[in-house]
Amino acid sequence: MAxxxxxxTEGGRDMADLLGGKGSNLAEMTRLGLPVPPGFTLxxxxxxxxxxxxxxxxxxxxxxxAHLSAxxxxxxxxxxxxxxxxxxxxxxxxxxxxxxxMETILDIGLNDESxxxxxxxxxxxxFAWDSYRRLVQMFGSTVMGVDSALFERSLxxxxxxxxxxxxxxxTASDLTxxxxxxxxxxxxxxxxxxxxxxxxxLRRAVLAVFGSWNGDxxxxxxxxxxxxxxxxxxxxxxxxxxxxxxxxxxxxxxFTRDPATGRPGLYGDYLPDAQGEDVxxxxxxxxxxxxxxxxxxxxxxxxxxxxxxxxxHYRDLCDIEFTIERGTLWMLQTRVGKRTAxxxxxxxxxxxxxxxxxxxxxxxxxxxxxxxxLMFPRFDASATGTALARGVPASPGAAxxxxxxxxxxxxxxxxxxxxxxxxxxxxxxxxxxxMIAAQAVLTSRGGKTSHAAVVARGMGKVCVCGxxxxxxxxxxxxxxxxxxxxxEEGTVVSVDGSAGAVYAGAVPLVDSAVIRYxxxxxxxxxxxxxxxxxARALSRADTVRRLEVRANADTPEDAARARRFGAxxxxxxxxxxxxxxxxxxxxxQMILAGTDAERDRALADLLPLQRRDxxxxxxxxxxxxxxxxxxxxxxxxxxPDRTDLAVxxxxxxxxxxxxxxxxxxxxxxxxxxxxxxxxxGLRGVRLGLVVPGLVAMQVRAIGxxxxxxxxxxxxxxAEIMVPLVGDVRELxxxxxxxxxxxxxxxxxxxxxxxxxxxxxxxxxxxxxxxGRIAEEAEFFSFxxxxxxxxxxxxxxDDVEAEFFSAYLDKGVFPTSPFETLDRDGVxxxxxxxxxxxxxxxxxxKIGVCGEHGGDPDSxxxxxTAGLDYxxxxxxxxxxxxxxxxxxxxxxxxxxxxx
Length: 898
Description:
Blueprint: E1 5-7, H1 16-31, E2 39-42, H2 44-53, H3 60-75, E3 88-94, E4 104-108, H4 114-122, H5 125-142, H6 148-162, H7 172-190, H8 198-212, H9 216-225, E5 233-239, E6 250-257, E7 264-272, H10 276-281, E8 287-288, H11 289-295, H12 297-314, E9 318-325, E10 328-336, H13 341-353, H14 359-364, H15 368-374, E11 378-379, E12 389-390, E13 392-395, E14 398-404, H16 407-415, E15 420-424, H17 432-437, E16 440-443, H18 451-459, E17 462-465, E18 471-473, E19 478-480, E20 486-488, E21 492-496, E22 501-504, E23 509-510, H19 513-520, H20 528-544, E24 548-552, H21 556-564, E25 570-574, H22 584-592, H23 596-620, E26 625-629, H24 642-654, H25 661-673, H26 685-690, H27 694-711, E27 717-722, H28 728-749, E28 757-761, H29 764-768, H30 770-773, E29 779-782, H31 784-792, H32 796-802, H33 804-809, H34 826-840, E30 845-848, H35 856-865, E31 869-872, H36 877-889
Parallel strand pairs: 14-15, 15-16, 16-17, 24-25, 24-31, 25-26, 26-27, 27-28, 28-29, 29-30, 30-31
Antiparallel strand pairs: 1-2, 2-5, 3-4, 3-5, 6-7, 6-9, 7-8, 9-10, 11-23, 12-22, 13-17, 14-21, 18-19, 19-20, 21-22
Helix pairs in contact: 4-5, 5-7, 6-7, 11-12, 13-20, 15-36, 20-36, 21-23, 22-23, 23-27, 24-25, 27-28, 35-36
């Protein structure tokens, strides 16, 4: 029979799969000898068994009862006994941290009898009734399904009647009355009475926590964070310790370093006379941990010693929950803390400097997603003006949006394409959809460890918490500043998560410090530590990575920027972008040509313009490969809109005028070239084979540009790529024409021009016949955008707006297949093409030039698949460099996907 329960003394941090993150870390702290209230963990296997059958796994409660008896024996008290009750907490604990997404029930064991015993042994009647009301409230909402807002409304009404702001000012008599109100509320809403049996409380609480794994907010969070649905959660049952026993008690959350900036020192929040849930819920404003040093210096010193132990042991930033019960410090939880992108880079560099981790481990602890966030623009400090309010800089970044005051509106307005800022007194787990939809989160309560701060940091959302001078009125849908200014819903504000400020209107943006560093090597003095840490990570990645990183660039300016950003060449130069603007007229002339001579004249006019374009790009990338793709899109894309032309002609006829002959000719051409599905029509290699002279003109322009660079002492490395090949015979025909043209250029210029010829693999047939295509191709480049479209049968321009959001909500996609490569389908085609292509031509160079080349997860796949390079937009080059290095470390000791 499976074993489902482990005592804290039996586990360790390496058992997170079985005991969950919280349970394994509680066991680890117990093993280290830290003061952890004793308890036991019900495993994730028990949860999965419960979810599979809907019932309690066989033998589970016998195990729980045995561990409970041992816990009672060690405590010298019995669960819920009337005179001196043992009380328990029941908390979720999945493998990966999901803050606030599942359930917690405190003070299990209290009932109408034992509350009097607790009052007697504690010497505080108020404390006993405060604990009881917490149990009834948590149990009622979590286990019995009563809307939590009903309890909150009752509490708020009682505080209004008593004229107090915080619940800490309610008397024992007030709390006794509140308990009765809560119990009546439960009976009214459910038809059940609050259970008086401690054993029933425990059993139902455990099963409720198991069930919360499949709650709406937990599912949404997992989709957002790409956490698997089949992991399940562990449940931790622990002896209660109490921070709400008076001024010499309290609860807090501590970080061993600042999770927003990575700066050293003990950071966090403390709340006297409070339970831990009060701290993270933000219902009362906390004090900084430095205040604990004044209030209780002995406990603070012990906390510093324990946090130092944990950081050295875990070799990372630790997030710690603790409670002080009448001067005695208890450690309730630790985990590797969530941190901002800035903090991740700074921490990795500093921990490496301190010798706690290796340079490779430091690289493994940062991410391309984090680097991308650091490359986002920030506010122009010279244009901010006076802040409406200031609060805690909980999660950095710059965001602009219209103020909204509830989750439903945030989701609805964001879905309509509007940028919004979610403003709340404090957020709860139910606000997760709104936080995801919003550009930023602003709260009037809470600190760096509040729910809003922790969740926003984990998601990379801009967040300012604890802006105390704001009075947030969610019912009236407005907030009021300290000087009386009223900001109504819909007003645009700017939220600076780095400075902890909010401004009226849309503040202009400037480039990030990382972009400035990449551009000029200097960056901003104020961001020196962060920029230096980023530079070190990129340098290490460049040292260890196997994949080259190239850029997709179509102009000399983009090519030069890509080179500054570390690109090792151009993996995709799109020639169609060179036919836009004023040159479109020349393309029109080529399309409308009635004779070969007219077409040849149009091509001859295009030739010097193309040559100049290629010369500039080859100069910018001198000494590095430049892969130039021959014309890909259908020719009608260079013509005016069909409907617009028809309207112009019809309007002229309606006025009794002769329609413009050029417009008539264009409409005739557009109609002639019209295709129901142009993405699957006359484009790519097909265009080159049926439009005489088109390939020759482009190849001649490339060859002459290469010859010009060679004659001027340069080192051009042009590669010619043929798009949309589906059959080797197509490529063979084009390659023969390329050879003839380049030979002619060589004879005319007196220098040898020899450009490798390859193809894009962007059709399933090309991937499945890659062995034959490799007989003619000197390199492959996967065009994963089109390969995804043709594999899935999607038209990207249509489906993303039509049904992708529904597919993401329903979990059909974990993420858009146009953002992260579909490994099972498209990835399998890539694997087949790589294997068969290299079997036919062992020295075949293979890369990818779709935007997947800059997606962090996809880069890891391309490394594993054996590609030689990835290519992406210039601004994603640093991200690809970093992830290529991390991919090379995967599977090695110390690798961490965090």
